[in-house]
Structure formats: structure tokens, C-alpha cells
Amino acid sequence: MADQPTVLVVEDEPAQREVLAYNLEAEGFRVSKAANGEEALVLVAEAQPDVIVLDWMLPNVSGIEVCRQLKTRSETRGVPIIMLSARSEEVDKVRGLETGADDYVVKPYSVVELLARVRAQLRRSRPSSVGERLEFDDIILDSDTHRVTRADQPLKLGPTEFRLLSTFMEKPGRVWSREQLLDRVWGRDIYVDTRTVDVHIGRLRKALCQFGGDDPVRTVRGAGYALG
Fold first, then answer.
1. What is the pTM of this model?
2. Is the pLDDT of residue 213 over 60?
3. What is d(CA 111, CA 21) in angstroms, rounded to the nearest whole number?
């Protein structure tokens, strides 16, 4: 499914990287993998993941430096980072969190615990991916039942329009470019023309206004679309 959350695993130990990727995929996540800091930064620039699991001890560019760079950029600041480290001292944990890491897990760790922490970060950054109910003005989206209502009237939305709306409702006010929407809604591996986004935005607008009310989807010239 295109709206599966993506987790980027940055780990230079091949065995640990594969075990993590295997367990995340088994839980329904899309996984991208990087063996070092430079590769991680390139992958994030190409397609922003929903969560990053980042090893502290990496060759050349350290995990701390990757974290610092991502957290100083406005476009990647909001991506949750879970730092993995064999350093268990309090001072190291504090340094990791002060650099901007959202969570800190000491090696050796339990994979089950790490998966729970990934889900906890997603609950904060991408609520619809973990079955949360989203609300914006008089619109309610329930990702568990796949139902949308506006002013208590049930709306009929196609699966693509549903994914578009859930993306918008996770971050009201955020401007999404057509490329970002293609990535999030259709998936990275599928070739779709950017004009297809405009067609589905049109369908979403029609569905949202089928019982009246203002169009909540805003076109931002030269940038993309936003909710509200």
C-alpha cells in the first residue's frame, strides 16, 4: 500500500541492519536502508521518511552529525529520529537528545521495544498511519473504519482521495508539493504524472463540498496544496 509509513534504518552493521529491516517490514512498514551517514542524508533528501532509526557510531559522518544536520533544516526538522547507541552513560543520552533526537535506545535492545517506540513516534508525527481519528473544523476522518464525515454527513471518498485527505489532516496548514503528495499517497515506486495529483485534488474538493460548506483545500501558487 502506498500510504504505509516509511522507516529509514541507518546502521553500518549489515546483520543488524537486515534484522531491523526484516522486523519492520513484517510489521507493515516500508523500509529504506543506509549503511552510513552520507547515504542517509542523500536518501532523506530524495524522499523524506516518516521515522529514522539512526545508529550513533557510523563511519565518516556520525549519527549525531546526521541528526544535527536534519534537525537544523526546516524541511526535515519534523522527522522523528530514534538514536541507537551502545553508549549507555547519561551524558551520552543527554547529548543525543540535545542534538535533536526524539528518542534514545541503548544497545543491545529488544526489537519488540524498538518497534513500539517507532509506533509511538508515528502516533505523534503521522497519526492516521496508526489508526487515529483526525479532526479539522467540521471534518472527521477515522482511519480504522475508513469513514469521513463533514458536519455529521458521511462523505463518499475514493481510496486515493481518502489518503490525500488523511495526509492533509495530519498536518493542517502545511503546504505539500505535488511531488511530496505523489510520494506519500501513490508511493515512491509508482510512476504517476504530477497532473494526476491535480485531478484527485479536484475530486477531493468535490467530495468535501458535496453537502455544501467552503472548500478547505487551498492552492498555493507555485508550491502545491494545503488544508486550511
1. 0.67
2. yes
3. 11
